[in-house]
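Posted in: Structural Biology > Protein-Ligand Complexes

Title: Requesting predicted complex, phenylalanine in pocket

I'd be grateful if someone could produce the 3D structure tokens for the following input. Sequence and ligand are given below.
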Amino acid sequence: MSEDKKSIHGTWSSRWTFILAATGSAVGLGNIWKFPYMAGDNGGGAFVLVYLACICIIGLPIMLGEIMIGRRGRSSPANSMKSLAAEANTTSAWTLLGATGALAGLLILSFYSVAAGWAMSYIFNGFQNITAESSSASFKNLLSSPLSLIFWHSLFISLTVFIVARGILKGLEKWINTLMPMLFLIILLLCIYAMQTGAFFEGLRYLFMPDFSKINPQVMLEALGQAFFTLSLGMGAIMAYGAYMPANQNIGKTAVSVAALDTGVALLAGIAIFPIVFANGLAPSAGPGLVFETLPIAFSAMPLGILFGTLFFVLLSIAALSSSISLIEPGVAWLIESLKIKRITATILLGFTAWFIGLFSALSFNLLSEFTIFGKTFFNATDFLTNQIMLPLGGIFIAIFVGWIMKKEHVLDELGFQENFIFKAWYFSVRFVAPTLVGLVFLSLLYFFFTEEESPDNEKEEEKEIYIEEMVEELEELKGFSISFRDPKTNEIYL
Ligand code: PHE
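-- Reply #1 --
Done. Output follows.
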């Protein structure tokens, strides 16, 4: 094992710290903001099922691989890849995997910070007399104000830079230690509230009863991307943290604990949110605003809601911070090692870059809402590019590196495993299962695009149109009048 080697950036003080730090990285907006709205956008149970399968079959094995590369390399992801490639007598082009990972981290941070800004602004929501309508309206209000969005985005990035510049090993340990369990408790409290909304079982059914007809290549890619995103995989965050892990810690058990905690938080968030959605007649497919529109209703209705609501958004912002620092750390550590610059300089440089790119995401909700890339706003396009393309691709290459490039005896040595059944199952997964499954999802999506006239996006549009037509018909029948629609550009009647 890599006992003699230590990272120049430090080592976690105890076994627990790595688990806490990695869980801090994994648990964040991905669990509480993104998971529920993605499940809602993709039909509920079917998405959740594929997501859980991706976590167990693909995510967990790759997480083990990432921690192992980090701990053996003992440096930034790019340089760990470089030294392990040298150890395996192969090309140093593998450094690129670390470099693109660092880039993915910056891109994710750019839009993550905008959404984290929403969470911070909600700390001051007040949580009183909130109805479904007023809640949706105040979220729309926030999105339509470029100044507020940029203010909160800037504040969030500054906090991230502040923590990372001081060195993530200092101070952070204590924070995560107490605050993460508190967030967990508030989510449990929300679940208890959800139980008595009257729509608890409807919510559970929506989350856990898969409608298999809803599974298509697009849903699979979204679930796969979300699995990578929520576990912080495919871009080196966990690898960077692995470099600070004590040599005597069991990597396998650690990975299982982190993945289990992360999945638990996401599922609990879903269990808390969907009953509130249904009880208040909101649409599960409300998109990125889902959590921000639903939870304030719950807080305003419960005793001590102001206290719990404020505390919840404080903790959510801190959970987002403990994730954002791991988004920038791979790049920062790499710059320090290769350019020999100070930590503070490296952090400010990268923080500024992410802040600048993030401005376009913040403005994509208002001033730049017409500016699209392949039909997506800047915010959605960066989200798509990173989560659904860069992370899964990064994941495939990490699996290939561990399974095919590294020498088996080095892998065994670093993991501290015997060649037992668990090792064999894991090794089989990183060699064959994970790369094949991720590859197949990509291929099926390409096939879908090139052979079918309907792209998955068109299909969604069409579903919406059919839904509108049905609603119109019903209205006409009910009220006894006829409705027609005029195209605003050509003035033609089309429905
Ligand atoms: N896992 C974090 C979350 O769920 C986001 C993240 C992704 C962090 C990738 C680091 C790397 O919020």
